[in-house]
From TrEMBL:
GO terms for cellular component: nucleus. SUPFAM superfamilies: PYP-like sensor domain (PAS domain) (SSF55785). This is PAS domain-containing protein. The keyword Flavoprotein applies.
Length: 116
């Protein structure tokens, strides 16, 4: 799905302008270091109209990497049909699940957060 809106914070984080990214798929931020398994997980959730939250390694326009927590959720119209997916990027965060998979632990990478 194409990007139809990008916040100023997202533009600062990635180094791209709105003109460069509107209409693009979010995968333009991926590079060889991005986990194919995580990308497949995102795709599976989008195809099944389910929300997901993943720990993702992305890349800025200048080639530098940043880790973020990506949350993708379907947005439905009044009839329940999915019209688009909202993607939220939380920079400088990574996540791990507790051993019983009931608690999500978040961590901050102050370097990425302070660069915004």
């Amino acid at each position: 799905m194409p990007i139809i809106y990008a916040s100023d914070a997202f533009l600062l984080l990635t180094g791209y302008s709105r003109e460069e990214i509107l209409g693009c798929n979010f995968r333009f931020l991926n590079s060889p270091g991005t986990s194919m398994e995580v990308l497949e997980e995102i795709n599976q959730h989008i195809c099944s109209d389910q929300a997901c939250t993943v720990d993702l390694l992305n890349y800025r326009k200048d080639g530098s990497s940043f880790r973020d927590l990506l949350h993708v959720s379907p947005i439905r119209d009044a009839s329940g049909k999915v019209r688009l997916h909202l993607s939220q990027v939380f920079p400088g965060r990574s996540c791990t699940w507790s051993s019983d998979a009931s608690v999500l632990h978040l961590s901050n990478d102050d370097n990425d957060i302070n660069n915004l």
